[in-house]
Amino acid sequence: MRVLYWIVGTVMMALFVHIITIFWVPTMSANQAFAVLNRIGAQGGLVMLPEPQTVPTDDDLSTEAIPYRDPYITTATCRFDLARGPLVLRGRIASPYWSFTIHRENGAYHYGLTQSAIREGRIHIELRNAAQVRARILDPDAPITDAIQVEMPFNSGLILVKSLSTVESEREAVRTAMEGTTCRYLPTQAAPGS
Amino acid sequence: MLFYIQLAIAGAIAIAVGLGTARHAITQGIGFESIKRGSWTSWPQAGGKDADPYTRAVFASNRELPNAGENVVVFSAGTDDEGNVLRAGCSYRVQGKAPPAQYWTLTAYRDETKRPLRNKAARAGFSSSEVLYRADSSFEITLSRQPATENWVPVPGDLPNESALRLFMRFYDTPVSFGRDASTAEMPRILRGECL
After folding, report:
1. Which of left, alpha, beta for A97 (phi over 0: left; psi -120 to 50: alpha)?
2. What residues form DSSP beta bridges with B98?
3. Which residues contact A99 (CB under 8 A, 6 or more apart)?
4. Angle between helices B2-27 and A2-24 (to 10 degrees)
5. C-alpha of A133 from chain center
6. Pairing state of beta strands B139-144 and B151-154?
7. Gap from A25 CA to chain B (nearest CA, Å)
């Protein structure tokens, strides 16, 4: 009977170690894809990720390239902190498929859309926190815009823009179009009466 | 005294088993929400708010970028249809039809570096626009050192025969039915040919 107690106790401890390990691994931020993006991304500016196949050599594991990336996808990222002001992302992406996603700093997905939601590949999106949305609503001089307005429940995060080239000949045009996409802060509008 | 010795032994066994099973779950890609189709595995919830802890651990440990919110379904395979690890010294045929999607890509990676194969042809895979289809809309992609007809992905000659490979098949702009229930997808088979 005593041996059985030891076996059950050992199994319970092993289960505890297993569960703690599984929950602990994602918190090792240094190993996460989004930790890499946070390091290489520019605050309020769009940064193109290097093409997976242009990484120097197969044996150079020191580079911060994110693993298992699709070579048919061109990726750009933009870090933001809405405490610095509302953010606008604007561009035109000539690609059969592209996606725009917003994530928290830890990578948690918040919002996204694909080319099927936008006319003619034109992206025009403005991100604001609740105070900035209120300030814009109360501002009689706020310009009328065709931008998609997104209210963010958090200030800091990053945007990922991905664009597909299904054939090699499309890749240069897709990359050029993405390089022409801007991600920048708008001047802050003070809330009337604040 | 005996109690403490027994406790130390039990603790050591528990730590070894706990860490070992956790490592196995992560390296083998075991998750509550993983979907298996033949030798292909997909994590449709990866990166989403509802991803299970195992899926999060798998993606965190290998630094993969999930595709949450992108209308994309991703399958990967590290073995052939008979369960053998994909190796650079063997030839493989990826054969069948692709599940419904506007576009798809198939890419071969060296598993150690997690990067696309680098060969003189600068071809690590095919997209739905590049691949040669047969009359019944099926295709066959050959992964080998020796040149092959139709769709050939050259395995670099300087890779050791034992180097593990991994295939990724990504489906972009998927119909809602496929994106939400990838478990019904009929994925292409991965058939092993000759090995060196």
Report:
1. beta
2. none
3. A112, A113, A114, A115, A160, A161, A162, B69, B70, B71, B72
4. 40
5. 21
6. parallel
7. 5
3-state class (DSSP) for residue A79: strand
Residue B171 carries which side chain, given as an amino acid letter?
F
pTM of the predicted structure, to 2 decimals: 0.83
With beta carbons under 8 A apart, name residues in chain A contacting B53: 22-23, 26
Token digits of residue A2:
């005593």
What ipTM does the predicted assembly reach?
0.85
CB B109 within 8 A of CB B167: yes
Option in B63, B109, B168 nearest A33 (CB): B63
Q: Which of B61, B66, B71 sits opposite A31 (nearest CB)?
A: B61
pLDDT at A194: 42
Return the amino acid letter for B22.
A
Distance CA B76, CA B113 (A): 15
Measured distance CA(A122)–CA(A101) in Å, rounded: 15
Asked whether the beta carbons of residue A112 and residue B22 sit closer than 8 angstroms, the reply is no
Q: What is the pLDDT of residues B67-118, one digit of tens each?
A: 777 778 889 999 999 999 999 999 999 999 998 888 999 999 998 888 899 8
